[in-house]
Amino acid sequence: MHVDLTVGDINKHLKSLAVPASIGFLFHTMYNITDTYFAGLISTESLSALSITFAIFFMIVAVGAGMSEAVTSIVGNFLGDKRRFSARRSALNSIVFALILGFFITITGLSLTPTLLGYVGVSGSYLNESLSYIDTIMYGAIFFVLSFFINAILNALGDTISFRNVLVVGFFINIILDAWFTLGGLGIEPMGVFGIALATVIIEALGTLYLFYRLARMPLFRKMRLFRLEIATFKEIITHGIAPSLNLFLMAIGIYLVTYFVAPFGKEAVAAYGVGMRVEQVALLPMIGINIAVLAIVSQNNGAKRYDRVRSTIYKSLQSSAVLSVIGVVAILLGAEQLMRIFSEDIAVIEMGVRYLQINILLLFAYAVIFIHIALLQGIKQTKFIFYISILRQLLVPILLFGMFMMYEFKLEAYWWGIFAINLFAAIFTRFYSFRRLKLLEADK
Prior knowledge:
Layout: H1 10-42, H2 44-80, H3 84-119, H4 124-139, H5 141-156, H6 161-183, H7 193-216, H8 231-262, H9 267-303, H10 307-343, H11 347-360, H12 364-379, H13 384-407, H14 412-444
Helix pairs in contact: 1-2, 1-6, 1-9, 1-10, 2-3, 2-4, 2-5, 2-8, 2-9, 3-4, 3-5, 3-8, 4-7, 5-7, 6-7, 8-13, 9-10, 9-11, 9-12, 10-11, 10-12, 11-14, 12-14, 13-14
């Protein structure tokens, strides 16, 4: 039975959806931190290899997660409009679409990764180390995409618990597999970063099977014989998914660009940036949970044309995010050095990473504003702006700003402040634009 988000207390809906999602993503981030920890045990080069391939890895996440957010919006709007058959049809066709998309990502990714790594100056053993990790991930792309799509359908139905379970269990399995595959034992030789990637693919495959099992048990999908392939649904997913996908993909490009401009400062700078982002992600977890909740609530209420509840959802989510941001900023500022020392004993890596955190953790609420208002635009199917702001935020402005920094030989800290300025202005602009679009919908009601 799906949860009707068009009625009832919004704060309760936000809590019931955001808390499980946040807990799940906490373990997902701890999962990534575990990978980073074991890579650091191998060598600074291995740690840097994970950091420098993170942008490419995130490209898989970007395409899969972006398109899947469209599925949440589409299915959620149908449910809000009480069109259960249309919701079922779109959901089942989206799974077929995910299979095709996953295969395409694998083929494209395997052919492009050597070139992308070459552009940022990766060569020799550093290149081999990086490719052994990212190529393995590419072979498992279909599982990443499928899990995103199935979870998107479950989110639209009001279920964020199943994915939480996957991420929690996956975290504990990952600790065991990372230790086993990287350190060796029980008949297995140490595999290095290849072992970290292999563990990730195995866990992702198991998680996908569990999510499919949970989806098949939903009352909405009992009559599977009614499935019929509809290309029109594919087109609808692409139409509504291209903007959020490009938004996340451009975020990956943005990470790649920062890595490109940071790489001349050495492997230590790349490692510091990678570890700093992992720590930053921990503080962002509650905001990610709120973002998922906002998308589900806004989608259903937009379908029901309950714009008063849409507006209330945004205000309440911003209030919660403000409180959580203050807690996160204080915690990271007090513990920045200790957190960096968990992953590296290299003094240069620690110093560079601490300065990154001291500057960019101040963006915590700005990121929350961006996440919440992008979820609003997705839920009300006004997604074009997402593409334009992403182009500016992740591509054009960083190239111009960081290019100038490189030309005039600015110090590394200038790049950290550049990231701060770009995202602060993006948050302000996104806030004003999205509420303008909501006002137009209210006026047309």
